[in-house]
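User: hey, got a sec? need COMPASS component SWD2 folded
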Amino acid sequence: MPAGPMDIDTPASLGASSLRNPRNVRDTSTELSTIISSFRPTKLFARETRESAPTYILSLDFDDPGELCMTSESDETIQIYNVREGRHDKALISKKYGAKLARFTHWSSSIVYASTKQNDAIRYLATHDNSFIRYFEGHEAPVTSISVHPGSDNFISTSQDGTVRLWNVASKQWTGLLYLNKPYLSAWDPSGKIFAIGSPAAGSVLLYDYRNYTKAPFSVFDVVEQGRAVDQRNLLHGWTKLEFSNDGKHLLVGTQGAGHFLLDAFSGKLKAFLRKANEPARRAGVGEGSVQPGAPVDPTRLESSGDCCFTPDGRYVMGGAKQNMLVWDTLAAVGQDKLLDPTFVLEDKREGAVVAFNPRFNFFASADKALVFWLPDANA
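Assistant: Yep! Here you go:
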């Protein structure tokens, strides 16, 4: 059943009109540092599901213009929302194959997403008529990440089959193949000239020159060596996210544990351990989930596209938790212990198990069982 938007309990200062139509989404000129502390949950999209069998959101993504927000969900659907209007646009059903890790291509009307059953192919879908354009076949175990190139029609996929595959959307055959030890996460640097592969089992992030990816990685960041002094529990497992900041200075390794690792994108040295202020969200690390067909959905066994992300200016990291949204300022002073507590805590009683920031507008979304749109309070 399609999602139904409804207003949620937010501070009265937001105003009723802002709740009905989030017009502040159009404001792109305000410097983020002046409003980051004023973001409030402004719109809730709650699916109509049975209380005994709730639906959980597995991934979040925005298209390049920032006009659309897309989720993949545990009920084998993909939902698309209009950001400017604050409304649900369409529901795409994928009952035969399931759906996770849904990503927009550079055309807002076409997407790629991974399967959760039947096989491990990646599917290329036209959203205007819900028709398949192409299947990308080759993986022999569940896909764990899909990363779209920032400037071309290429993307990377990683899988539990121990391979990294490079693709172009115009061809069903992969254009490149790497065999690695549990390469579960991938990310492009903002220039598109470098890609990173995260291997929790090796405790390492490997950096490749895209033009010479068949050669050995030109750099290997040892997360175990850099992080052992600040966190012993999530060095070799429980990773949830790998992302470069848009200014190219930092690399984020998100974890399901007590915090996230913020690395220097050039040297691999630990800049800070982004310590969580409260209990983390209840999602499994990438490659560690397990869902039995027909069994009740256990959110602690579900993987997601990550509960943390950079803001578009590269300065802040947004992170979800069991409740509230956490904001870390990467420019804040860090002591010798490398521990960095949240600079701001944005209040919300709902869990933020999946988080994504809009690439163009001062706007972000968080999700667990429902999707929440966040906007800055113009009266703060």
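Quick note: The longest helix spans residues 16-20. Let me know if you need anything else on COMPASS component SWD2.
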